[in-house]
Design goal:
The protein is mainly alpha-helical and 293 residues long. The protein is 78% helix and 0% strand.
């Protein structure tokens, strides 16, 4: 018995030990250090770290309108990004589970934007918005293409939403395709024999049975939207005049551009708590709507 127990411990150490070690080293320790630095005024380079308590958090909520504006922008962006990304992803998945000859090619095409890095994607779309749309607008005189897409507060906001949805919908499409393929065919055939329309089958059979996928996709979309940084940096850099600065970009600028790492980590802690609460509520709500096939 003792030898078996020792063998089990050795196996756990060999298979779980390395991943646990690196998880602690890369995730847990930096997280705890971040919590500590959020209560200091450290600039990120000095040997002197002064403890200031909750002063950073008081400053954020009372004397930092840029952070609150960035939070409001991020919330609006997240709501629209999550809705449009999931709607487009589900629509593409529903379409590409039909017996189309080109469905495998189309799946590849729609998934490809997710493979491109956010920074590169932002620079590509910056060229499209500034040069490509302007050229099309001059040729066709269509007002949609002549808009200053990155030049005004409203159009820059929608530009980021468009690029985000275009990049991430393909990934959610793959998850929805997997879930739709697992919907029992006999249930759909029985509903069709009973005279149910496509809309009725989608609403009362398909959608409830793919709720586990909806839970995952909503979680991913919320996480991606809140943490959106690379697209924001490469596409608008938070402009014009800070109107499209996300929370992630605001934290980055505070910590590394303004050399106020203590204040930046305090913002990161607030951001972490907000995202954790929202995603926990989302998962709990959608889990309650799941049904078994």
């Amino acid at each position: 018995m003792k030898r078996k127990k020792t063998s089990d411990w050795i196996q756990q150490f060999i298979f779980v030990g390395p991943s646990t070690f690196f998880f602690i080293l890369i995730i847990i320790i930096p997280f705890l250090l971040g919590l500590y630095y959020s209560f200091t005024n450290w600039n990120g380079a000095s040997d002197q770290v002064e403890w200031v308590g909750i002063d950073n958090f008081i400053t954020i909520f009372t004397n930092d309108p840029k952070f609150l504006d960035a939070f409001w922008f991020t919330i609006r962006f997240t709501v629209l990004g999550v809705i449009f990304t999931n709607l487009l992803g589900f629509f593409l998945a529903y379409l590409l589970t039909k017996p189309l000859k080109t469905r495998n090619v189309l799946r590849t095409i729609f998934f490809m934007p997710n493979v491109i890095g956010g920074l590169l994607l932002g620079f590509i779309w910056q060229f499209i918005f500034v040069k490509g749309f302007a050229a099309i607008g001059n040729l066709t005189d269509i007002s949609f293409f002549t808009l200053p897409w990155l030049g005004t507060k409203g159009t820059a906001f929608w530009a980021i939403v468009i690029v985000f949805v275009w990049q991430t919908a393909g990934y959610l499409m793959v998850i929805y395709i997997s879930s739709l393929n697992n919907v029992p065919k006999d249930v759909l055939e029985a509903a069709e024999i009973d005279g149910a329309s496509r809309g009725q089958m989608l609403r009362t059979i398909i959608f409830p049975l793919v709720m586990p996928a909806v839970t995952v996709c909503l979680f991913l979309a919320i996480s991606w939207s809140f943490k959106m940084f690379d697209l924001n940096l490469s596409l608008t850099k938070g402009g014009p005049f800070g109107s499209t600065e996300s929370v992630a970009l605001n934290i980055y600028n505070e910590a590394f551009a303004n050399n106020r790492l203590g204040l930046g980590t305090a913002k990161a802690v607030i951001f972490f708590l907000a995202v954790a609460i929202i995603t926990s509520l989302q998962v709990r709500f959608t889990k309650s709507k799941e049904v078994e096939a």
